[in-house]
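Quick one, T. Sequence first:
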Amino acid sequence: MLVWLHRLLAWLTELWRKIPDSVKDEIIAAVVVAFEEIFRKYYREKKREESKQ
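Structure tokens:
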């Protein structure tokens, strides 16, 4: 199992190295935007829960 995981991570790393920097920037920006909304929603819910107590 660990060998399979290691190969997968090595493949992803090699793939990432082949991607041009401009495309990497776009991918990172898209991930940040996607997770920003998730984190905002999570912290809003936490604040609501804490304020109810």
